[in-house]
Amino acid sequence: MENKIYRVGMADAKVTQSPGILTTIGLGSCVGIVLYDPLTKIAGLVHIMLPYSNKISDNSNKLKFADTGIQILIEEMVKIGANPKRLVSKIAGGAQMFSSKINSDIMNIGERNAIATKEVLNKLGIPIIAEDIGGNYGRTIEFYSEDGRLLVKTIGYGSKYI
Amino acid sequence: MEINKLNEMYLDVLKELGNIGAGNAITALAKMIGKKVDMHVPSVKILDFKEVSDIFGSPDTIIVGIYFDLEGDVKGNILFALDLNSASSLIWNLMGLEVKGEFSELERSALEEIGNIMAGSYVSSLSTLTSLNMKISPPAISIDMAGAILSVPAIKYGEISDKILFIETQFVEGEKLIKGDFFLIPDINSFDLILKTLGVEVDGK
Description:
- The complex is a heterodimer.
- Chain A is of the alpha+beta class.
- Helices cover 18% and strands 35% of the residues of chain A.
- Chain A has a single domain (5-156), classed as CATH 3.30.1330.200.
- The model of chain A has no long low-confidence stretch (mean pLDDT 92).
- In chain B, strands 1, 2, 3, 4, 5, 6, 7 and 8 form an eight-stranded antiparallel beta sheet that branches.
- In chain B, a hairpin with a 3-residue loop joins strand 3 and strand 4.
- In chain B, helix 1 (8-33) crosses helix 4 (105-130).
- The A-B interface holds A 9-12, 25-30, 49-50, 56-58, 60-61, 64, 95, 97-99, 101-104, 106-107, 109, 136-140, 155-156 and B 48-53, 58-60, 62, 65, 67-69, 102, 137-152, 154-156, 158-162.
């Protein structure tokens, strides 16, 4: 497989195998969840917007939500040979982009997304081996399936591998 | 109503709303800076979420976003977006301050206030036109990647739909020193109400 970069948009997901690179650009209050099978070097990235798919009037796009998005990502990874029992995860995002002067529940959506993501991964028994969550700034993330590094880039807060 | 079922007539009505609202907002801006500001014909964009972050080219383009919740009879939100050069030009035009590097607290606060005046003019003209009560929340600013800023109104839409609808108006100051985008993002559930008060029959077809 060539060393290809797969870009994941909002409410979107992609899977790849080493040496493919998964990226999502300009992650704000959403959460980017990388799942990785270190043995087969199969990786998946889903960019979720909202915590849970229940109590939502239109939830036909299952990739929008932490619960259903992660589930679908696992299924897609298993299809190309990943073992669900071996999966580990790295997560980033969940920022509060605007100050809380506005008193509405959309303002703490980043935090709620992060909490839901952790709950879902925990329930599925998938360990979170690295995270970069919260703050009030956007992130661009790049996951290298070759060695499992996740690069987190920000405007004004530097870049780092987690 | 579902976004996919919006027909041409509804879209024209929404464009016209954008025209009237943004026209007033831009008049307010022109008064503030004492210069002529032109606006483009508004466009109504219905996008998949994964397309949203590309509105400003690349999702990692740095923009200034000033965000408002829309409250009252009509719910939704308003986002006033500027590129960094335009934001600096605005501050120079209004305050005679040259922005060096990062925006200071004072400059951020000034941009919030400019957004506040424009968004206020926008909704007050729509409120008069429709006789519906429309108010804006205090402004909130973020200077960051376009994708991250646009995720905020998109998430709000995500709760009710798989697509997002923007009424977008672009404007430019004479010599293109300032160009910006004004997005009215009405809650889909408020459409029926807006259209009904304007005498447009909504039959769900």
